[in-house]
Amino acid sequence: MKKSKFSVLALLMAIMLMLAACNGGSKETSNEKEGGSGDSSGSKVLNVNNSSEPGSLHPANAQGTHESWILEHTFEGLTKKTEEGKIVPGSAESWEISEDGLTWTFKLKDGLKWSNGDPLTANDFEYAWKYALKPETAADYAYQLYYLKGGEAYNSKKGKEEDVGVKATDEHTLVVTLEQPTPYFLDLTSFYTFYPINKKVQEENPKWALDAKTHVSNGPFKLTEWKHKESLKIEKNENYYDKDKIKLDAVNFALIEDENTAWQMYQSGELDLAYPLPVDIQGQMVNSDDKEFKMGKELAVYYYNFNTEVKPFNNAKVRKALSMAIERQKITENVAQGGQKPAFGVVPPGIPDASGDFQENTGNLFKEDVTEAKKLLKEGLAEEGMKELPEFSILYNTLDSHKKIAEAVQGMWRDNLGVEVTLENAEFQVKLDREKAGDFEISRAGWVGDYVDPMTFMLWETDGAYNDAGWSNKEYDNLLKEAKSTMDPKERMDALHKAEKVMIDEMPILPVYFYTKPYMVKSNVTGVFAPINAYPNFIYADKK
Amino acid sequence: MKWEVCPIKDIPHFSIANLNISCIHFRFQLLRKSMIGVITMLRYTLNRFKWAIITLWAVITLTFIIMHTIPGNPFAKEGAMPPAVYENLQVHYGLDKPLLTQYGNYLLEVVQFDFGPSLKSSSISVNDYILKGFPVSLHLGAQALVIAIFFGLILGVVASLKRNKWPDYLSMIIAIVGISVPNFILATILINYFAIKWNIFPVATWATWQHTILPSIALSMMPLAFIARLMRTSMLEVMGQDYILTAKAKGLKRSGVIIKHAIRNALLPIITVLGILTANIVTGSFIIERIFGIPGMGDMFVKGISNRDYPVILGSTIVYSAVLILLIFIVDIAYTLIDPRIKVTGEKK
Questions:
Q1: Which of A184, A209, B176, B188 is the most exposed place for a label (fewest CB within 10 A)?
Q2: pTM to 2 decimals?
Q3: Which of residues 12-31 of A touch B (CB under 8 A)?
């Protein structure tokens, strides 16, 4: 009996020891925290949530928004964007374009410095772009540099590094040669794959970007703390040329994945900015006049793919009928609830046309019309020798908001057309695989533009990498070719307008809505704005 | 001297000389017994260790096969990436090699305790992930377990002693709420009241001890309820046993009977489930870690799978299996210490 008493005691002791050890550890970190907040108590520190651990803070290896938000505040490309979406000089002071649109010459500002004090030269840009294209780097976004002459060849091991169309002719001059005229190239130079990297640092320590201690950047802020899976901190970069305009001393990035938790932290004042917002909060805020709520534009469209290689969805009339029979306004107002705009085309608002806004100039390319839809469906099915629609389903990646929209569409088709569709959810990866294999009838998709130009929404080229609908149209292909070969803005935009119309006339996809970017900022924070294809920007923000 | 058979029982008590001899005999036997005990224990442990390695190998192999069978790949994105980019990524992470080579390489690495890089995040290796995430999950889990065991046992014992009276109903209500309310709902409720309304604790993240309270409570409710129910049933069963009746009949105090006889024996089934429960809790709860933004291991596992981050999947599976195996082993040892009917023999058949 004594023995067993002892054992129970021992077990308890072990548990307590374990706890004590753990508590000891956490005490240390808590002291650190206190120290950290102590010295910055009088300074302006913004608290935001980055949602997830950044995969890499090396511009070449960054993969998405979890990296880009931090990179956008710590680096600066040749150009940058204003609140209105205008492209203005960044590290570059000015630029010239040759008449054929193929050669771009950028002049860098004088006296640019890296955060470690090294001078920043045109060589750093040349080096960075070539580094991202180097096959061994295995950069996800290397294809953003395929616009450079010889870029794709080098990245796919068919060409040489020397032949890549970027050259620093002197410390301040960067000459870029493109594969073909690319009017939106200027926009691309503000994208993170086009950021410079410090050549000297990269060569001395290839792992510089993995640790806050060795991280070197050229933007308004510099990375000073990176606690993996916990938080990151960026502080004002004293070597930044425009440092007098930077009012914040530091920004803390929390890494909270759960939108609801982040929202609760915003409510309790632990965060100054909340983005993305939970769906129900968006719904509440859109209809309120809360001053902290901001509605940013987003360069993205939510749509359904039709598998045009499967009967009867190969028939344009059937596709149009289904598209005309849903009520988009109801979906955006009652289901999606984020102030989204119903989509009757594929290019979202906010992209400049030759004059005015591209989407506004386009207007609605089709109408919702139940009687017409019924007629088209009948005709289309007759053409395919069918009496009614066979069993088919909407495939979407498992997410509550996608499910709700699919259910709404299901109900609308049932009520308006008397058509039954089943819903099928799959894990994101599985959905992608099935789309590539053509194993679906209708699938949910979303597309976020890579740059601010209608071209980024022209995805349905024959055999295009993003053409999951499997649609093919000669006229569309030719119009895109036309747009790609001209530098004349009017001609180019005309061709793109026509291409969009040709595509929507055949409806290989069913556009649902254009995304928005609703976010909230505390009222004591000013100067935050949301560029159309980026997260809210706080480079020039101030906190009272 | 023959010492295999100790004659102590047959020795008449009046023979002083014999008694002395028999005492020596007896001590000999005790020594021998404890020696044999240590050796069998050692042999048993070694044997278990061997099987642990084999189990781990099987787990790795199965995970490896399943992982590469499921659709998807680590570099998939909405819309395809150019083939050259995809090719470069495959080469960079050695995924272009035949699966068997990859498997072999992986085993070689694992033997050296190197779990490889994360395919999604170049800044942190799988080893870093584990070294960083496991202590956090362990800390959170241990706190939750202490709460669960302490209150679970009290509730269970009180419920069984006051059967069908209000304490029983109260503990049953707590148990039903604990089991039926998912911990993410409980977490949200806790945050809403304790962090936002009353401002006692911070909402989320993992910095000071105040940050650990809410997640520990949220995580402990389910096991707490489970332990309480199990303890109640087990106690009721034990209380009906003959030896309890005997103890009572001998005139022992009620408290003595309950503490010395009833609770001790009723603990056995608790210990059985405790091993698995501990492994589950200590290796991290995906949901709680996600809600509270805790940098533990639970989220690593689930996100590893949805990202098809192969090394992360394998690494976390191995750690989870190892912890589970270790805890089951500890439970087995704990049995022998608590229940005299169970003995380690370690004999091979």
A1: B176
A2: 0.81
A3: 15, 18-19, 22-23, 25-27, 29-30
